[in-house]
Amino acid sequence: MNKPRFIMLATMILAAAASRLIPHPPNFTPIAAIALFGGAQFSSKRAALLVPLAGLFLSDLVFGFYAITPVVYGSFALTVCLGFWVRHRRSVQRIAFAAVASAILFFVLTNFGVWAMENLYPKTTTGLVDCYVAAIPFFRNMLLGDLLYSALLFGAFALAENRFVRLREPAAGVA
Question: Are the C-beta atoms of residues 52 and 60 closer than 8 Å to each other?
Answer without folding.
Answer: no
